[in-house]
Amino acid sequence: MRFDIVTLFPAIFDGYLTQSLLHKAIQRQLVEIHRHDLRDWSHDPKHHKIDDRPFGGGPGMLIQAPPTVECVEDIERASPVPARRILLTPQGRRLDQPLAEDLATSPRVLLLCGRYEGFDQRVLDILQPEEISIGDFVLNGGEVAAMIVVDAVVRLLPGVLGDELSNFDDSFSRGNRMLEFPQYTRPREYRGHRVPEVLLEGDHGRIAAWRAEASLQRTTQRRSDLLPDQANTNKHENSPDFG
Ligand code: ADE
Questions:
Q1: Which residue, among 40, 23, 160, 35, has the nearest Cα to 110 in the 3D structure?
Q2: The pTM is what?
């Protein structure tokens, strides 16, 4: 899978792409991540400016349409694989696990990161990207949101996680749209807290039943909106048990 990330701050991604799982996935050529500095498409040869004041007045600056549209067109031409265009914005569809799973089936995803007050509307009108938000809060730009998209998607690509099934039971995932059950490792007892006996007995049927029940209980307490056949009420936001 290939990601193209359009940003005014390509260096923001340096640490993230050179560590841990992402680094390994890139080295093993399971994913390619190309960063593109939008300033390289500036029409201002002297200062490489790509922003300007909004017509009609108002605070802040907007990213101009010509460099952005031309940048995306040039990047797309560099590979014959058609790209799914995504613009990171708090106004977009909320990212969730099914959307991450869907993106993981795309051979190529282009991520447009906004800054300042966002893009000139004609960027959206001409490029018609999907708009994705990572939550109902405003970040300083789309870069952190883009990293979150990359992170959520890359771990779903075949071969990226050691054990092919290890993302299957994760909270919200295909194998389990509810929250994950609690997990324990050694020691068996720590500061008076004991590992539940059933997990030590080796009876896989009982362990599976215990985990299913624990997952259901946790989801009921914290995220009842995730229970099957429940309206999406977001009750968890005020739940005293959430933590
Ligand atoms: N850019 C600024 N805030 C954002 C958000 N919440 N999601 C995605 N992109 C953003």
A1: 35
A2: 0.89
